[in-house]
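Incident log, support desk, overnight shift.

02:14 A customer reports that sequence design results differ from what the structure should imply. Their input is reproduced verbatim below. On-call engineer (initials T.W.) acknowledged and began investigating.
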């Protein structure tokens, strides 16, 4: 998007890392119209604040890309009490999409792109089984469930929203050599 000259807003939970990525993309693309918003997608209060900041800052929103992903071995909870993988990769993105839907609709057609993972193929989705409890927690399985839920939510958004208003896409980026993949799929 930056190469094409788009105004890009990077949303990340760590201000220093997000700024570093912003500066690197600007340097590589020659596009200096990149800005940042700091928010943890697993904290719904921060997601609401980020949505307010985005709607206040942007006159137009053409594309929203959900790219949050983390595969952790230890179960943690969001400030709202949701398992953190589900909070940051399912609930937070769902809330952000909901809060920005009107702005995306104004772009007609706006687009929502969800970066899922082939890791989802190892888990069957059940709504009651989406969050693993502490006793049965397995980070790889929790990640797979969250990624499966992302794709399912994308399908449901697509059924409910007129595609002339907003189009929903889900994709698997291919396998990347990350610490999470190394630890779970050596």
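02:41 Re-run completed on a clean worker. Output:
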């Amino acid at each position: 998007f930056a190469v094409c000259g788009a105004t890009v807003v990077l949303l990340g939970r760590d201000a220093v890392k997000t700024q570093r990525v912003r500066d690197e993309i600007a340097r590589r693309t020659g596009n200096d119209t990149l800005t940042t918003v700091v928010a943890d997608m697993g904290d719904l209060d921060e997601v609401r604040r980020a949505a307010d900041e985005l709607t206040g800052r942007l006159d137009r929103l053409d594309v929203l890309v959900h790219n949050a992903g983390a595969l952790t071995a230890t179960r943690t909870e969001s400030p709202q009490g949701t398992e953190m993988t589900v909070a940051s990769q399912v609930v937070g993105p769902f809330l952000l999409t909901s809060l920005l839907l009107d702005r995306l609709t104004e772009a007609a057609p706006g687009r929502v792109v969800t970066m899922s993972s082939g890791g989802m193929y190892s888990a069957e989705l059940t709504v009651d089984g989406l969050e693993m409890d502490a006793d049965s927690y397995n980070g790889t399985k929790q990640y797979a469930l969250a990624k499966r839920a992302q794709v399912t939510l994308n399908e449901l958004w697509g059924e409910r929203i007129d595609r002339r208003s907003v189009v929903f896409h889900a994709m698997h980026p291919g396998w990347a050599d990350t610490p999470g993949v190394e630890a779970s799929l050596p």
